[in-house]
Structures are given as C-alpha cells and as structure tokens.
Amino acid sequence: DGGITQSPKYLFRKEGQNVTLSCEQNLNHDAMYWYRQDPGQGLRLIYYSQIVNDFQKGDIAEGYSVSREKKESFPLTVTSAQKNPTAFYLCASSSKDRFTGELFFGEGSRLTVL
Amino acid sequence: QKEVEQNSGPLSVPEGAIASLNCTYSDRGSQSFFWYRQYSGKSPELIMSIYSNGDKEDGRFTAQLNKASQYVSLLIRDSQPSDSATYLCAVNTGFQKLVFGTGTRLLVSP
Fold first, then answer.
1. Which residue of B has its CA nearest to A97?
2. Does B98 touch chain A (CB under 8 A)?
C-alpha cells in the first residue's frame, strides 16, 4: 500500500542534542512538507520541498534543517538551536503539479525534550 | 488578527444531529479551502475541499464557501460518535503553502 512512513513515532531527546526525524513516501509525490503541531494550536510549516535537491523555509524554520536528496525521502533534523522542540511533527506530501492544499500526512513523530 | 480563525470548542451535539463548524480567514486572495479531520493523537486527513462560492456535498459532509464574507463552514449531517474529532480549517493563500486554523473539537454523544 502506498503511503507516508514517519519514524520514530516517539523520540526523547536531551537538551543540546540534534535529532533526525525520518519521512519516506512511496506515492511518487513531488512535493513534501514538514509541519509542527503544539497542543491547542494549528499546524505550522517548518520546511517544504517541491523537487529533489530544492527546499524552502516555512514560517518556523529556525532551529531546523532538511535535505531532499531523493524524491522519496525528506528527513528533518531538529538541532540544538531549536529552543522549544517538544512537539508533534507531521510530514506530508502532495501529488498535484500545482499546489492546491490537498495533503497526505504520515502518522507523525512525537518528540519530547527531557 | 489570526489568518485563519476557528472556535476551539468543544462543540457538543447529540447523535443524529447536524454539526456546524465555522472558519473565517483574513486574506481575500485565498484561492482554495480545506477541511481536515484529526482524531486525538493521530495525523490529519483531508475530508473536504472547496474552491468556489457555494456548497459542495460529499456524503454526510457539506462544505460552504462565501468569499465575500471570508467564511467557510462544514456541516456534518446525521452526526455519529465516530465523527468526534478535531476539525482543522486550512486555507491556500496562494504562496505555495497552507495556513491552518487551530481546529474545532467536535464531541458527538450517543
């Protein structure tokens, strides 16, 4: 079955450590996105990529980094520069050539900083 | 002013009733509008999209758009306990990204 796989589902990190969240899709989608969700808040865009080897900052990119070396993969690194990293992280992809807003989401990764 | 506003709820309705969820947005240039459903602890899933003024029906769901009033709504007919979730309104402002509201929590009681 096609879909988006995020791993790990739960992750604990000590302050000062970098962590990388994996996102893999087999939907043959060109565009991929990373969102962050905090309790009682909507989704906020961290980074997005519309094509391999290219990505753009979203609204809250500070303290995060990404790469897009393969169409299927869009990993997110949460660096020690991110001051409040505890959150639910969602990876999404889109099949449309022209961005519309119809996104498919992975199951999410819940990061807790100890 | 937030770009996309929703009442956080919870909105409580009895089983079989119509649930009405509302959303307003600030950017008049917004082009397309979406409703995502998110169960507790899970990821959002797209349930409705609407691109032009008026109503769009899909099964028990009806999305309504009024661009002049900058207002989007979602009606759920014959509400079921399985509809209990948070409903996120999302707006494509034309800059290659979606802006999400904070969501309205819906509780459907048996």
1. B96
2. yes
Please answer yes or no on whether B92 and A100 come within 8 Å at the CB atom. Answer: yes
Residue pLDDT, tens place only, A45-90: 999 998 899 999 999 999 999 999 999 999 999 998 888 999 999 9
Which one has a higher pLDDT value, B5 or A95?
B5
Q: Does B9 touch chain A (CB under 8 A)?
A: no
Q: What's the pLDDT score for residue A114?
A: 85
Contacts 24+ apart (CB under 8 A), B45-49: B45/A105, B46/A102, B46/A103, B46/A104, B48/B74, B49/A100, B49/A101, B49/A102
- pLDDT value at A1 more than 80: no
Instruction: Compare CB distances from A105 to B4, B45, B91 and report the shortest one's residue.
Output: B45
What is the C-alpha to C-alpha distance for residues B101 and A51, in angstroms, rounded to an integer? 27
Q: Do residues B94 and B30 make contact, with C-beta atoms less than 8 angstroms apart? A: yes
